[in-house]
Design goal:
The protein is α+β, with helices and mostly antiparallel strands and 219 residues long. The protein has 2 domains: 148 residues, Jelly Rolls; 66 residues, Arc Repressor Mutant, subunit A (Orthogonal Bundle). It contains 8 helices and 11 strands. The strands form 3 sheets. A 4-stranded antiparallel β-sheet has the order 1-8-3-6. α5 runs antiparallel to α6. The radius of gyration is 19 Å and the shape is elongated.
C-alpha cells in the first residue's frame, strides 16, 4: 500500500491524515486494490451499494442507461477522486448507475461500513474521515447542480457552450482539453452526436471556437 500513499494523500477522504495513520487506516478497513481493463464494468447498475472506490490510476465513468438503452455520462472520475460514496453513505440497497473503466485503471475499494461505523479498535482517525466525507459529498452536490445547469439548456448549442465555458473557467484558460471524445461528450450533454458535431462545425465557422479532437480553444 505504501506505493499509493502519495496519490491517496491527495484524496479528499484522507485530508489531514498523516502517513502512519493512513497506512494503519487502510489495514483496519481491509482496503484492497484491483486492476481493471478498459471498458470493464467495475460496478453494474443494480449491484449492492457497498463499496467506496478511489481511482489510483486511469479513469472511470459513471453512466446511466434509460429504458431505451440511451447512455448518459454523469461524470468522469480521475485520480485521486472517489466514486459511489454517496450511494454507500446513504445505504442505498443497489446502485442506480454503472461504473465503467474508461482506460486501464487501478482502483482501491473500501467497504463503506468500516468508515461509517466505529471499529472495536476505536481508531482516532474516524472522526476526521467522516468530516472529510461530508466535505466531499458537499462538493459533489455542487458539481451535480452544475451539470443540471448545463443539461437543462434547451438547445445543443447552449449546452455545448455552457459546458465549454465551465471547463475554460475551471482550467483558467481559453485553451483546454476535455475528458471526453465526441460520443462521450454527446452522452454527457444528453444530445445527439450528429447534432453536436454540426453545432461544433457552426461555431468554428462563426469564429467562436477552434478544436482538434478533445482540445478546444475559445476565440
Amino acid at each position: 500500500m505504501k506505493k499509493y500513499i502519495k496519490t491517496l494523500k491527495k484524496c479528499r477522504l484522507f485530508e489531514a491524515v498523516d502517513d502512519e495513520s493512513l497506512l494503519r487506516m487502510l489495514t483496519c478497513f481491509g482496503a484492497k486494490v484491483e486492476i481493471f481493463d478498459k471498458k470493464y464494468t467495475i460496478f453494474a447498475e443494480g449491484s449492492p451499494a457497498k463499496y467506496i472506490g478511489i481511482v489510483l490510476s486511469g479513469s472511470v465513468q459513471i453512466i446511466q442507461l434509460d429504458y431505451y438503452g440511451n447512455r448518459s455520462i454523469l461524470s468522469e472520475v480521475r485520480p485521486p477522486e472517489m466514486f459511489a460514496e454517496a450511494f454507500a453513505c446513504t445505504e442505498t440497497p443497489s446502485l442506480p448507475v454503472s461504473v465503467i473503466a474508461d482506460e486501464p485503471s487501478e482502483i482501491m475499494l473500501i467497504d463503506s461500513t468500516h468508515i461509517l461505523h466505529t471499529c472495536q479498535n476505536h481508531c482516532g482517525f474516524h472522526q476526521q474521515l467522516i468530516y472529510n466525507l461530508m466535505k466531499d459529498l458537499a462538493a459533489k452536490t455542487i458539481l451535480f447542480h452544475q451539470r443540471i445547469e448545463i443539461t437543462s439548456k434547451r438547445s445543443t448549442r447552449e449546452k455545448l457552450l455552457a459546458y465549454l465555458l465551465m471547463q475554460s473557467k475551471k482550467q483558467n484558460s481559453a485553451s483546454f482539453e476535455i475528458p471526453f471524445d465526441r460520443q462521450e461528450l454527446a452522452d454527457y450533454l444528453e444530445v445527439d452526436r450528429s447534432g453536436l458535431s454540426a453545432e461544433i462545425g457552426k461555431l468554428k465557422k462563426e469564429g467562436l471556437l477552434d478544436c482538434r479532437k478533445n482540445h478546444f480553444v475559445l476565440l
